[in-house]
Amino acid sequence: MVMQWYRQHKWAALLVTLIRVYIGWQWLDAGIRKLTNGFDATGFLKGAVAKPVIDHATEEAVYPNYIYFLNHFAIPNAKLINVLIPLGEFLIGVGLIVGGLTLAAAFFGMMLNFMFLFAGTVSTNPWLLLLAMLVFAAGANAGKFGLDYYLVPLIRKGWKR
Fold first, then answer.
1. pLDDT (tens digit, 9 = 90+) per residue, 91-136?
2. Cβ atoms < 10 Å from Cβ of 20
3. What is the C-alpha to C-alpha distance for residues 118 and 55, in angstroms, rounded to an integer?
4. Looking at the predicted structure, is the pLDDT value of residue 161 above 80?
5. Which residue of 13, 66, 100, 131 pairs with 144 in a disulfide if CB–CB is 3.0 to 4.6 A?
6. What are the pLDDT digits (tens) for 11-66?
7. Could you give the CA distance from residue 141 to residue 139 in angstroms, rounded to a whole number?
8. Which helix (H) or strand (E) holds 60?
């Protein structure tokens, strides 16, 4: 019953809009700073490999598959990562603020937060991840007061063809 209210009621949509704009601003700000000041993830990526998240009981890496991904894809393609991270942060922010493709923006924001957490950086990532989960859980109601109000019917219409 609570989820039905959260996913359909206009007051819930208003609450989610406030959350959405807040985390959108956080992503947009981070992306703009990286785009304008330059960004190089190479040191961060190498640091995540050199000091992975360790299970202190077994002294083994907690996320060995993530370290493999960093070693075999991210670090060799650091130039691509240096473009994708700031651009992704910027686009996630824009999508959340304007409410356009809101669920996709929230999803990719959660994925970036998970990637940063797998690397061992806590910072604001758990907070932003929790808020993004609240936006994502609202479903279509998350974009009710935004561009999704107009986009979702068009997408559904095109999907049925």
1. 999 999 999 999 999 999 999 999 999 999 889 999 999 999 999 9
2. 28
3. 13
4. no
5. 13
6. 999 999 999 999 999 999 999 999 999 999 999 999 999 999 988 888 888 999 99
7. 5
8. strand 60-61
Tell me which amino acid residue 51 is: K
74, two tokens? 């991210």
CA atoms of 120 and 48, how far apart (whole Å): 7
Which ranges in 54-124 belong to alpha helices (H)? Answer: 64-69, 78-98, 102-118
What are the angstrom distances between the C-alpha of 157 and each of 7, 150, 152, 160?
21, 11, 8, 5
Helix, strand, coil percentages, rounded to 5, for the chain = 75, 0, 20
Residues 10 and 12: their CA atoms lie apart, in Å, by 5
Q: How is residue 7 written in tokens?
A: 């996913």
